[in-house]
Design a protein that fits this description.
The chain is of the alpha/beta class and about 575 residues long. The chain is about 60% helix and about 10% strand. The chain has helices at about 1-15, 25-75, 85-105, 105-130, 130-135, 140-180, 180-185, 190-240, 245-265, 270-290, 350-360, 380-390, 405-410, 420-435, 440, 460-475, 490-505, 540-545, 550-560, 570-585, and strands at about 310-320, 325-335, 340-345, 365-370, 375, 390, 480-485, 510-515, 525-530, 535-540. It is elongated, with a radius of gyration of 36 Å.
Length: about 575
Amino acid sequence: MPALLTGLLIGSIQDSWSGGSSQDRSNSELTRFTIYFVYLFLGEIVSCYIANIGFIRTGIILSSRIRERYLAALLSQNIAFFDNIGAGEISTHITADADLIRDGISEKVSVAVQCSASFIAAFIIGFMRDWRLTLILASSIVCITLVFAAAGIMLTKYRQQWLGETAASGTIVEEVFSSIRTIVGLNAQSELVARYDSCLAKAERFANNARLISGVLLGAVFAVIYLSIGLGFWMGSRFLVAGTSSYVDILTIILATVTGIACLGGIVPPLQVFTIATAAGSRLYSTIDRRPSGTASRPSEGKLDSVLGYIKLQNVRHIYPSRPDMVVLNNLSLDIEPGKTTAIVGPSGSGKSTIIEILERFYDPVAGDILLDGHKLSELSPNWLRQQISLVQQSPTLFATTIFDNIRYGLVGTPHENASKEDIENIVYDATRIANAHDFITQLPDGYDTLVGEAGVLLSGGQKQRIAIARALISDPRILLLDEATSALDSTSESIVQAAIEKASQGRTTIVVAHRLSTVKSADKIIVLSGGQLVEQGTHHFFQEKNGVYSRLAKPQAVDLSEKESLDDENYLEVSIQNAKSVSEEI
């Protein structure tokens, strides 16, 4: 429209200069066109404001929904998905990548729509004035389209590589600050800084490549614009001499087409943002669209009316996706009696913790069946199954909130989740008494309202472990899994936690994975694994009469029981290591 008005205005001025119209009429025409330009100016301000506000709001809403869907998709994935992705990378995706998508949807879309509309309107005006000259100038569109296509492919490639290195650097930062004490203790700051700088250098290289392509693209667009202006004047002069076009039409067409082509050039900055948003979106939607394995097809499927806790493994074979060449469980078959305590022991790498993980359905075995009360775990809803099982690990995770809230989280998904405050308090207190945690909690200045800090850093190892046991017991699970629950504790804390475990195990199926054989002496059954296979099973007294794998595993710990007081720490550690090596060689 500005091009059309400009052409008509110049035509009116030309008529005035050539004597085709009076001065008063020329002044009147000039005033009229000036008012039109003012109207256009005001209209563009209002329309641009409304468009920008609308698209910005849309971008914020859509990016928020994408974040929600991405987080929901992450939480529905099986554990194998997280073996090859770091916490820093996830954090980068959910924050930086979502922001890039928001930028690509917001005001940049408004600019792209305005430029596209101006481009179309400009050529419509041109074809209405003189289709021949407009068609000749339209040939420049082909050139710009080819340039855009080639540049878009290369920009998307470099943007994806840039985002990948940015996510990798975020993972390094996450690792650094989540284990800052270990890093400082190892004096590894310089090495990690070098790794971080390396990621940033790679990201900068990819970003520079993208900037180079963007610069070439912008230069090519302006080159086409100036060539189009020259071509328009050259062909327009020939049409003017031939009398087939008027001066006003030629000038209007040139202004309109140049404006249209310039609007295509105005799409270049939004195009850069679109390519970044596309690359970021592809990364997010690859996770959002990923269907997790091991989920029930309908929420009503895969539930049992009651659970006894009888567990049976039949020819189970398992290989971790991240280690496809290593067989962790090799045709393992065993029975775990309901209501009893079963201990699983063996050398490192024998598959003890893997049994815990497949019972929790963090992973599904590659072969064989796992039965709960005669029903295959693969036919049961994972969410329902995990409501029947509680897990206490070697290094329990506590959230940066109060002790009470950390324990109360164990009620999520249970019938008591929405109980009254008084009922929840009573349930929490009962669980802490069983876990031998109530006394030390009440002795704290703030009691159950004590903040535990990031990952429970304000509590000792034994205190964290007892809180984790209380959280596991609060839902009254039929099956209790203990994975090295006391291995990281000193002897005093171990005895307290062990007493809590024995109280917690009463009346439920309990599976204890342990290296310290002193913690499994009282187990109803002890299963010994080696190389992912069952090699022995029985009770502690039964194994004392045999010179098998269990007895050889007990040798280093016999030193622990009888000679610990006569050895200093260094000699004790040396003897333990030597005995452990001999056990591994014999096995």
